[in-house]
Each structure stands twice: as structure tokens, then as C-alpha cells.
Amino acid sequence: MADHSHLTLFMNDGNKIPVIGFGTYAPEYIPVSLSEQATEVAIKVGFRHIDGAHLYQNEKEVGRAIQKKIADGTVKREDLFYTGKLWSSFHSPELVEPNIKQSLETLQLDYMDLFLIHWPFSLKPGGDLIPMDENGKPQLDTSTDLCTIWEAMERCKDAGLVKSIGVSNFNRRQLEKILNKPGLKYRPVCNQVECHPYLNQSKLLEFCKTNDILLTAYSVLGSHRHKDWVDQNSPVLLEDPVLAEIGKKYNKTPANIVIRYQIQRGVVAITKSYNPDRIRENFKVFDFELTAEDMKTIDGINRNLRYVDIPLFADHPQYPLHDEY
């Protein structure tokens, strides 16, 4: 196995993050046991960055896969980079640390490498992941403040539960709120957002670079086209003729091209697949380089198309996607 350990970026706190990550989210119709198998395959083929979340409800399986690969000598714990996320029903400051500890216990890990606020909007705290009222509407919590949640995240970093802290699905305004917070101790190391050639996030990327925050991209390959969230008539990114054409030139798949595109922009790419052949395929992005002209061509297919917009939460004042970026 070739050594890809140099393929990391420094974050603003001095820690390093691998430029390509394996996403563990799967829609609920996929058996949860497949999370374990897929994560094992990913580690075996060379992925060192595993992207998980409390919301995905498969931390037990993902943790088991990690433990297996450590036990069989494939990796050491310090070779791996694990990202977890604080779900929106844990936004009360006093719930943040217990939520991390619960995830760590489920994963059988002593620490997370990175912990993110999953979405900036808050839901009613307590039992349910998505608490609903009797009319089938989500129970939003508008009383929480992103800055106090961030302070609770900072305390978890100080306690050694997590090495780095960041955010996900934040817009520019929300990032500025944290960055301008009086007494800020740690700046977010990254903002994980939907990002692919149809939604290239160039303005948000520019803003993040200016503020020394990494952009991490999810739905890098388009989207898994979940029927509840994704418009089934939306165009399929990987069928784009421009990507096919560039792929031919390098004898690479459209998926390879879009992952490589992100890496060359300095964006961390989270790729998702539970198919062993595609997991293997998705990692083959380090033996070629796109030209400046290719990069420009790919920039040119941007159409500000969002696959994941979760309208269910659009009424929340902290819903991030009403702003341009």
C-alpha cells in the first residue's frame, strides 16, 4: 500500500486533516451492518479520514470497523482521523459534552480528531433526533445562541475529548458571528458544506480561505438522491458530459475527476459509497493532476444547484440556506 500520509492539510489550530475522507452516512433503507463492512473496506484501501455523526445512527458499526482494523494491524489509532458532529437537538450548552462522551463510548474511542456543529439551527432538546409536534411539524428551538454552543465546544477541546472543533452547513453570516465573538478562544478549523461542480461554493470558499478556515465538501459526487430530500428530477452530476470528457483524457471516472477537482482547490473531499469497488475507485485520485484549463472548465459547469436543502427546517431563523452564501 502506497503511503498517502503526506496528503494532509494543516488546520488553523496546527492539527492536520487528510484531504480525502470516507463518509459513513447511509439512508435508512440501507442495512446498518453495511456501514461496518464499508468502513473496513475504506480503511483497507487507504482512507484515513472517517466522517461520521450522531445523526447517522451507525457509530457503533463504524467504531467496530475501526477497532477491527486497529486490532489486525492495518492502522494505529493515531493514523486515523475521525470526525463526529453535534446534532441539533443537543444545542443546549450542558448537553454538548455528554453528547460527545456518548458518541465516544459508542465508537469505542478515547477522543475524536474533529467535532463539528452539524447544522446551525436548533431543535427542541431531549430524546428525539427530529422532534415533531402533533401537526407533523418539526419542533424548532429558537432560544439557543450559536456563540454559547461554540463555547461548550471549546470546553470539550480543552478537556481533550476532541482535538479540533469546527462547524458544518454554516453560511458566511453565521461564521462571522463565531469569528467576531468576544473572548473567542478557538476559531472553527473548518466548515463542512455541500460542494460539487454544480454547487462550487466559490464565494464561501473564498471567504473561508481569507479567514484561514478549511472548506470540507460533502455530496462531492452529487448526491445519493435520497427520495425524501432530493428532487428526483435534478440532474445527475456524474452523468455530466464535461466530466466524462475530462475523465477520458486521464482514463479516470467522472467521480475521480470531481474528487481531484476539490483537492486541487484546497478543499477536503468527503466521498460516500458503500460499494467496495467504488470505494476503491474513489481513492485513486493521487496519480494524476488536472490542468488549470480543466479546473476552469469544471468551474464553468456550476449552476448553484443544491441537492440537500432540508426544507423541513427552513422556518428556523438560523436556517443557513436563505443567504447567497
UniProtKB/TrEMBL annotation:
Pfam families: Aldo_ket_red. Residues 20-302 form the NADP-dependent oxidoreductase domain. PROSITE patterns: ALDOKETO_REDUCTASE_1, ALDOKETO_REDUCTASE_2. SUPFAM superfamilies: NAD(P)-linked oxidoreductase. PANTHER family: ALDO/KETO REDUCTASE. Belongs to the aldo/keto reductase family. This is NADP-dependent oxidoreductase domain-containing protein. The lineage of its organism: Eukaryota, Metazoa, Chordata, Craniata, Vertebrata.
